[in-house]
Amino acid sequence: xxxxxxxxxxxxxxxVALGLAAVRYATGAPTFEYGGExxxxxxxxxxxxxxxxxxxxxxxxxxxxxxxLAQRWLGALLRALLIACLALALARLARSxxxxxxxxxxxxxxxxxxxxxxxxxxxxxxxxxxEARGEDTVRLVTFASDAxxxxxxxxxxxxxxxxHEGDGGAGTDPSAALQLAYGLFPPGHLRRAVVLSDGGQTRxxxxxxxxxxxxxxxxxxAAPYAEGAPPEVxxxxxxxxxxxxxxxxxxxxxxxYSTTATTARVRLYQGDTLNGLDAVRDVELAPGDNLxxxxxxxxxxxxxxxxxxxxxxxxxxFADNDRFSTTVVVPGRPTVLYVEGTPGRATYLxxxxxxxxxxxxxxxxxxxxxxxxxxxxxxxxxxxxxxxDQVSLTQQDVIERYVRDLGGGFLMAGGESSFGxxxxxxxxxxxxxxxxxxxxxxxxxPSLAIALVIDKSGSxxxxxxxxxxxxxxxxxxMLSPDDYISVVGFDSQxxxxxxxxxxxxxxxxVRDIGRLTARGGTAIFPALDMAYQxxxxxxxxxxxxxxxxxxxxxxxxxxxxxxxxRSEGITVSTVGLGGDVNRALLTQVADVGxxxxxxxxxxxxxxxxxxxxxxxxSRSNVIEExxxxxxxxxxxxxxxxxxxxxxxxxxxxxxxxxxSPAQAxxxxxxxxxxxARWRVGLGWSMAWTSDVKNRWAVDWLRWxxxxxFWSELVREHMRQRRRxxxxxxxxxxxxxxxxxxxxxxxxxxxxxxxxxxxxxxxxMGRRAADATEPLDLDLPLRQTAPGRYEARxxxxxxxxxxxxxxxxxxxxxxxxxxxxxxNPYPREYMTLEPDVELLARAARLTGGGNDPTPAQxxxxxxxxxxxxxxxxxKLLFCALFLFVLDLAFRRxxxxxxxFRSAPSARDxxx
Amino acid sequence: xxxxxxxxxxxxxxxxGFAAAVTVLYLLKLRRRQVEVPFVHLWQQVLAEKQSTRLxxxxxxxxxxxxxxxxxxxxxxxxxDPRHEGASxxxxxxxxxxxxxxxxxxxxxxPDRLGRAREEVTRLVEGLAGDDRMLIASMDATTVPLGPLxxxxxVLTDALDRLAPTDVAADLGRGLRFAHDVLxxxxxxxxxxxxxxALPDPGSAGARLREAGVEVDWIxxxxxxxxxxxxxxxxxxxxxDVSRSEVLTELWNPGEDEASIELSLLGDGEVIDVQRxxxxxxxxxxxxxxxxxxxxxxxxxxxxxxxDVPDAQPADDRAYARLPERRRARVQAVTAGNLYLSAALxxxxxxxVVEVTPADYPAEGRFDVTIFxxxxxxxxxxxxxxxxxxxxxxxxxxxxxxxxxxxxxxFDRLERDHPILAFTALGDVNVAESLAVELHEGxxxxxxxxxxxxxxxxxxxxxxxxxxxxxxxRSDLPLRVAWPLLLLNSIxxxxxxxxxxxxxxxxxxxxxxxxxxxxxxxxxxxxxxSEHPVPVVDGRAVASGLRAGFYHLRTxxxxxxxxxxxxxxxxxxxTPAEVLEIGGAPAEAPERGTPGVRTEIWMLMVLAVLALLLxxxxxxxxxxxx
Lengths: 910, 626
Hints:
The complex is a heterodimer. Chain A is of the alpha/beta class. Chain A folds into six domains: about 1-95 and about 870-890, no CATH class; about 100-230 and about 835-865, 3-Layer(aba) Sandwich (Rossmann fold); about 235-330, Immunoglobulin-like (Sandwich), CATH 2.60.40.10; about 335-435 and about 625-715, Class I glutamine amidotransferase (GATase) domain (Rossmann fold, 3-Layer(aba) Sandwich), CATH 3.40.50; about 445-620, Rossmann fold (3-Layer(aba) Sandwich), CATH 3.40.50; about 725-825, Sandwich (Immunoglobulin-like). Helix content of chain A is about 30%, strand content about 30%. Chain A is built from 23 helices and 43 strands. In chain A, the strands form nine sheets. Chain A has an eight-stranded mixed beta sheet with strand order 18-17-19-20-34-33-32-29. An eight-stranded mixed beta sheet of chain A has the order 35-42-41-38-39-40-37-36, with no helix packed on it. In chain A, strands 24-23-22-25-26-27 form a six-stranded mixed beta sheet, sandwiched between helices. The two termini of chain A are about 50 Å apart. Helix content of chain B is about 25%, strand content about 30%. In chain B, the strands form eight sheets. In chain B, strands 16-15-17-18-24-23-22-20 form an eight-stranded mixed beta sheet, with helices on one face. Chain B has a seven-stranded mixed beta sheet with strand order 25-31-30-27-28-29-26, with no helix packed on it. Chain B is elongated. Chains A and B meet through helix 2, helix 3, strand 6, helix 5 and helix 6 of A and helix 1, helix 2, strand 5, helix 5 and helix 6 of B.
């Protein structure tokens, strides 16, 4: 008994050792080569089960079996082998082997562009392959914008193919279907995919996916639908000219595609209403693309949306693609600011410019803009017959900056209050004009004697006195050498500051004027009388007094003195400074004296008033004679008109051309400038020295070319919008809008570092039934390359969209971009003809072909695939065989040499 | 119960065959050894016991037979690989979307994020219950399954081996749509995202998934680390002065600490510029390199964080660009002598100009562009053409039917967006006279007077055509910069040289790359040297690539180099997301199974048979069975 226990312990020990050794060996080297094939244990720990085999041999030692020892040992060996087989099976012995089984996935397009007949043909085709599959595998995927796996029943075969619900059918994404198919190929099968489609993909890229499929070992076959396109009419494009001008008719071109010969009624909408010029038309549609051209006109600037609606008379599968809308931004008419000194006479030029397609804003001098932002909206500024004292320094500054910095066009038109006559000499505006306000001809004019009577009372002390002296000096400088001047200063007593003398002695006059000092009271009469005494003895054709005072005076006799002076040919004008002057008295003196009364609160106006007054009284700058302007510099706007046919002008203000680059365009018979221009900063500054009214230009108003002349003149010189326009393009791909701005400056440099914002608005011209919220997005544009900015955004809506981008640098807008984006309807409805070539290319790329038969599909040819085959079923079979063999060895005695068979019945009878 | 191995018929056949064999063997009567015993009383004793043991022997024989049959049945049944009938109906169906986008190359966890993701998915596979099925897919710009939907652990781990990193931004929406397609109609559907959470908004795909009752789980990967990324790198030649180019490099530090970096610019593989910069936390820093020289073909930018802390994301530390190539164009100028034309063509050093008189036309050789100045041949040449004042000789027809002349025309209408008119100012050009012509269908007037066209583009003889309908010598156009620009723009228009050239393409996007005319096949050589045949459609090769770097496109004897970079994305952000919102609800941590619980019935059956065979062996040798 102890001996048996010892054997049992030995057997168990041996079994444990054997099992551990086997496990260790198997886990250390689970892969091995044999006969050119690779074998592997997937669960190597299970080989430890061979540890039970020593127990088999232990059992032999206890055996009561009536078998020879050798046979018993053979039986034990067989049983050990059997257990080894089972252990290997549980250890999942596997080998890599070449197989030729084929798995085919049919990818069936069930999108809305596919007819029901095509679907039935596709089902039949898949069924045919299903029946012919044999040992091979067939799977089915239907796809539109998404992909579904469809189960095939073993008995009932391929089910009827149904379309995808919801929006899933309004798109075709064969690449998504192919990606889904990758997950349906069972291991150890050659991979085939068959695409049954019309080839009209709306998402993804089948060719790129086919390249990936080839790398993944999938051979793609194409089976385009044989069924032709269903009866369909679609508006595929609606195009408008690149540039549309308000009021100018233009063609609207629509492309209407039809799969059959049919007729349709097309309606063109402008906004929500039918197009005025050409709204409804019945058209014959031939199979294919048809061009329909209609005419339209835009009356109001801004974004305008056109939509073409087709109403086919025959069958039409999709309604969504019967309407196509597009939006265009029509630029507004140029705007002219026309400031007229005598507004009642502004109608002539305003009407002429209006006929030339301009918006004209006529204003009086009081309404001249005082800020640049207010003036910025105008493209051209005409200042006609307005005296300088009605335009403040601030307004002059704004006008100058408008021309210089914003590139605005400016024209001063002549008249009795314009140029020198309006006191513009020495002003900012004069410096901006291409002409000087004095004239070469003044020396030929009759002489002028002028007396300046200047209040030098204590109240004038300070800036007023200095400006009065400046005005006196300017007056002296305006005069020609043949003119005469005297200056009388007064407080309570008059003082002859400058005795009556020729203006030629400028230095002495200026020096004497400079001695004027303010002090004392105010007594006008003696001073005016002193001036009268000086003038009355002076020989001059024109004798004039300018009286300046800032104080209250109740003196009597002044009107009477003025009347006496008037009778002696001496005129008197008065200038009241400040709010304390006796306006009634000064006005009366001026009226009686045949002059003009001026009142100002701002002492800075005094010089201009003096100059204007001087010009007015001298009348030296006014040329009133008939003449025909002569072209001396042909400019673009004059090329298309014959100026020689223009009527005579009746007069103008004499001026003198500035040196080059000032350019005289029209001159008078005397060679004096009538029309001149030059560049000031970014803009044009022009001088028209005749007028634009019914005085000097009265014949021109009746001239047929009057409107064209002014329209063309303004067009050429008006502000070109200084905001640079940068190219912007936009397109929609796979439901994503991609916007690109190319920012290249005029100097060929890339515009880098811009802060750009994109505004998206739309869909424009939505139908009333469309209850969805319109899109109104602001997006940043990101710089992706030198001079290149991009934005991307999802665009789930259909229609036309207006894109506007503003480009800022250092907080200032320096450029803008405009584009339209049309996403008329789902791309699925654009697919009107099968794209057989796309499917064929994709198939060729993977080594596949077109229209495969089941035999071709399931023919592996030379192809095979390395497959990982688990061998446990074979090992179990082997174990079964060993078991039966083991039993057989028990039932049949093999090795017992002493065995004698029992005597047969015949032997017993013997 | 259903059989997934041998069919029931096959199992029964195996069972029947071996059972029959066993039965036959048990019908055989084993001949016993004949033992002669000399004592009669012993015989009598034996004969007396024989009656009592006969019944027991018969029972023992039947028991043995039944044991053998049980073993055979167990093995035959195991070969059928039986499964529970409801295995595929009750088990959980899981789609594992493994983020393989660029951010998953970060090394903030060991070995890297993708390696960690692989480990996580391996644990998921090990925890699958017997009836569960899983599909593993890689998710970058597209989502591709790496294997079938299966419960086989081996197949799933094989699929994991195919995971590979890409230099592409992830498209979560596409990934979720794919998962939705796979899980439609499947029992207990679940999506597990294995990602760092640096994912774009999936749009409506998340909501659709939730509505379909799909559980969405997330295994976050990564802990975050310092990273400075090159988020834009491109080079462009100036439109007019094509000899000069400008480079944009945009750097981004999405981290929370300022960093000192070294930015290197390599031209054709050699370092041409190195800059040391500081970049603040969250700062985007743009550097422009103007007048870059030292490179003919390729540019590469590299960024490195200086100091002890390494950059945790190597994928965005390099960017690539291809310098736009200037192709030489051969131009045939057919003119009786026009100094303005000759002078304008001399301005571009990349033009090989051959001048011939009309009498000597055509010149020998092949040309990319032909210019006819004041003369038109009877048949248009087999090249793109620029016509200047196209007056055909008498008896021949030119490119247009001439209907008269326009006196003193002006450029009233200009298509300023047309590439031929780029950078030109024609508004005040003076022209003495222009031809009045009838346009062909497809012709387009890009500049015109109100009375008729002045510059027309179209095609003749299947080649592009530009016609300037006046004699430039009778205008002041040659005195302006617009004249050479007009000519050179036209030649560029013909030779497809576009100022909008992009120096790199985006990884993960379909690329449409221009190839020489007539090319039908092309081969794409990836940065790793692998070659891929690509189709050519409408003169462009359609390709795609997932790794950044320089690619080569072989077409016949020619080979073009182009660069690919990661497109605009947030892949540089290494700080993992705290919450991943999908369809309006946060993705939860997945419920993990217990590793090793997978049971397969055939294995149990084999173990049972093994035990049975051991028992049978011992009972046989102790004569309990026979």
